[in-house]
Target: Integrase
Amino acid sequence: MNDREVARLVKKATLAAGVCGDQSEGDPAEKFSGHSLRAGLASSAEVDERYVQKQLGHASAEMTRKYQRRRDRFRINLTRASGL
Model:
């Protein structure tokens, strides 16, 4: 399997699942690729950042953080944190 086949499968699966991504404009299939799998792994792994960095082969923690998309989006409840 090559990188283009992986990208095609990711696009097909996201469209079939009705996933549109964070952006509301444009072709939903253009928002996902094989690279989305790396970003998804970096974003969803609930381990120390150093392990993610090593697994993805990043030389710096800064690069790893670029891959980590909205990690705490649903884990932090702002209503509870504010005491409401």
